[in-house]
Amino acid sequence: xxxxxxxxxxxxxxxxxxxxxxxxxxxxxxxxxxxxxxxxxxxxxxxxxxxxxxxxxxxxxxxxxxxxxxxxxxxxxxxxxxxxxxxxxxxxxxxxxxxxxxxxxxxxxxxxxxxxxxxxxxxxxxxxxxxxxxxxxxxxxxxxxxxxxxxxxxxxxxxxxxxxxxxxxxxxxxxxxxxxxxxxxxxxxxxxxxxxxxxxxxxxxxxxxxxxxxxxxxxxxxxxxxxxxxxxxxxxxxxxxxxxxxxxxxxxxxxxxxxxxxxxxxxxxxxxxxxxxxxxxxxxxxxxxxxxxxxxxxxxxxxxxxxxxxxxxxxxxxxxxxxxxxxxxxxxxxxxxxxxxxxxxxxxxxxxxxxxxxxxxxxxxxxxxxxxxxxxxxxxxxxxxxxxxxxxxxxxxxxxxxxxxxxxxxxxxxxxxxxxxxxxxxxxxxxxxxxxxxxxxxxxxxxxxxxxxxxxxxxxxxxxxxxxxxxxxxxxxxxxxxxxxxxxxxxxxxxxxxxxxxxxxxxxxxxxxxxxxxxxxxxxxxxxxxxxxxxxxxxxxxxxxxxxxxxxxxxxxxxxxxxxxxxxxxxxxxxxxxxxxxxxxxxxxxxxxxxxxxxxxxxxxxxxxxxxxxxxxxxxxxxxxxxxxxxxxxxxxxxxxxxxxxxxxxxxxxxxxxxxxxxxxxxxxxxxxxxxxxxxxxxxxxxxxxxxxxxxxxxxxxxxxxxxxxxxxxxxxxxxxxxxxxxxxxxxxxxxxxxxxxxxxxxxxxxxxxxxxxxx
Amino acid sequence: xxxxxxxxxxxxxxxxxxxxxxxxxxxxxxxxxxxxxxxxxxxxxxxxxxxxxxxxxxxxxxxxxxxxxxxxxxxxxxxxxxxxxxxxxxxxxxxxxxxxxxxxxxxxxxxxxxxxxxxxxxxxxxxxxxxxxxxxxxxxxxxxxxxxxxxxxxxxxxxxxxxxxxxxxxxxxxxxxxxxxxxxxxxxxxxxxxxxxxxxxxxxxxxxxxxxxxxxxxxxxxxxxxxxxxxxxxxxxxxxxxxxxxxxxxxxxxxxxxxxxxxxxxxxxxxxxxxxxxxxxxxxxxxxxxxxxxxxxxxxxxxxxxxxxxxxxxxxxxxxxxxxxxxxxxxxxxxxxxxxxxxx
Lengths: 760, 344
Prior knowledge:
The complex is a heterodimer. Chain A is α/β, with parallel strands linked by helices. In chain A, about 50% of the residues lie in helices and about 15% in strands. Chain A has an eight-stranded parallel beta sheet with strand order 6-5-7-4-8-13-3-14.
């Protein structure tokens, strides 16, 4: 279908379009025109990906100078593959309509683990091991050694790419990970390096968040992406946490012990090298005297170790004299590690600012701020000079060096927390140093500054106004779209009391109350009796899940439940959980019906869709607040309050509600789907919680459904399910929630769309 | 975690004797506290490992896991007391870095006993040469340290201020809520109006209050937050996107080259006689002739005469319907000028 979006000709690869997709295009086009950032919320299952792709590709074709590249960031590999599929569909449609090959190159990039085709390296399971082995085959010094001595193994695919691949760009087309591998096999080129090389001139790049947000990786992979690109963060409701994680460091006692080991390795390697080949150390020394900039212009394969974000003026300066020679630097590292060890030997929790840490390290072991700032860079240089090919052993030391560099670079927005033991096991000594980033805007700031348009989109971004605050940017457009539906196919309800009128709540004071637990159990049993196929339940934490299940067992609720459906439980073990999931799906598929008990913020709540019969009802037991006693969270809340004027409670509620919305959204994956959403907590009915749900859920949450008891809830469910079970065909949707081109162009619909655009 | 720490002399471990404390002296070898008391009962003695003479007073509690680091830090502190030059004392960064490396080498040599004689000599030389700078620097904080101190102080100040602010704000809010509730109950008890309307108005009032609240909370804190702009509205630092505006001279835009066009006068009068003909027409008879000094400057009477004539004749054809203000002005000024001429 060819659409006219505000004067732009858009090729849309389907015969029908949802009205909200059209409004989404309108808003997105406005943001692209304004060259500003935008925040767009649209329910899952309404075709966000294909909408985004078709509009941006059309815009790129119409304004090839203003918009040169699309960088699409997704979270997981399956999601990346989904995006590539949509893109392929779109390009096929273009080809069919225009009758010629399209000059657009789109590719997916993932880690070496997913792209390696080396016969033995690709067998490895762990990402770090693959990276390390790849490095040991492709580093420049290894290849130089190979030139002298044929016995040194190298990777033939990388050699092939290096010899020929750079001159011949990838022909236009759409390449997902498998296509890249296949292309690499036929040409005998390394697909990973081919993809990384191609990023600079590809039109559409699809990869994971980390390639852009993690400064350690972004520096290497995404440095050369031009300013006139549009960056899309899909499923971005957790983007602030990703930003924070990418800048935080966690140091344990074991890590430090490993560091000491690797320092000894460094020492012996240096003394060996001094005896055999002192020239190389001298060469490095000379280079460092001149300045670091040259050191960073190294071969691409040597970039396995990189520095966290440094202001570029530091890079241009020379390395301070104290750590210029290799021996001095190793002694310096030793002091740093020993110092951190003494810091870990505390009896009570310590929290201090980076400035305090710097002063303490100066008085205790005489280390100035400046050499500390160069640690990461200097270590990378040393490892390169020493030609250590096995990098996996050095990752602890690299972590510590990143910590040293970060702590001396940023004095604001970070905090250091040293906990001698975990809160849950105060007798077991397990000291951990958390260097925690409090400001999510630090990591994402370069992205906002560099690219003309950044699109942040997800199914659940409500409340929208929080994101600009915590990410510290100014969006030109901030919109939440609802779902137009031909029938009310979601049924959100707030159940606040049991049949015995005891209020249901996961509040700290009442969560141990047997009456509350029993009421939760009765609710589940009655819903399970009324609802067919799959039911998914979310609890606030693993701990809470365990206590509830054990008391349900005592009260006989589990037995009652198993009369209706099979029961599966998510645990912290990923393998166990995936086994439970497989069996859950099996039980739903063959009609037996099943209940899955899982945890908000867990694996199930984040990445797994329960479409159609897999999730006919979602029950949210309690409000999923984070563990508020965590010191890192406390520090972050304080920082948000001081720096951005966000009140603690506001942030906590925001965070809880976005996770609740994420859980509820699991059961709705399209317009033909239908599902019940039960929010079982009295507090959900308060205005401050309710208003923070996404608009598309709020729309269907009627006032009459906000204060129900278990029995009322089940009555409503039954009536609604009977209505939903009626046959539902495309004709029912056409004209309301699904439009043909003519219907879209009709005046009435255009008017409606205009209204919708203004209303938000 | 330190269970495996062992005294090298008596082989006691931390595991067996949790009260054991290891001590180190200048040589960097550890001994447990009881061994120190036993071996150094006299106040001085030899290290059981390296046999170097030690004094009992110099024993300290071992701070780090590796006693060598303790030793190094000791030496470092001693050396840095003498070698305390700052970057400001050097003309270039390069020289400062060379100096730092030299210091590092000295410390390294002392720790690993490499060439002790030469190193000591170097230290002595340095001491002699740089006595005054060392003295001076001892009392001076380095710039880095000062920065850190400032930061720490600012943090402290901010913390206490914030704590007060938020505690007060919270208290205030609680009070107000309490008051509002009491007021509602009072009204419900004593007024004759419809209960529903009272409740409705109360809800409205609290909503209005809640709206005001965040503003009030944000305002005092905004004073504390460092402003990112100068009073002129220019952003501090280069964080703004329009870095161009920081150029001292605004960028010249490319314009077409300037081309001269002769100005057109709106004369409005009969043409005056040409300047060359003035002599012939005997106009000079009515004018003072230029004296020698005036002629030296290039002045001739013809010039002033010509100007007077132009001004006298200009604007004679002027009619008010046709022309505009400027013409009027021109004629006015010209008459004045001629007056001046006559007086001179």
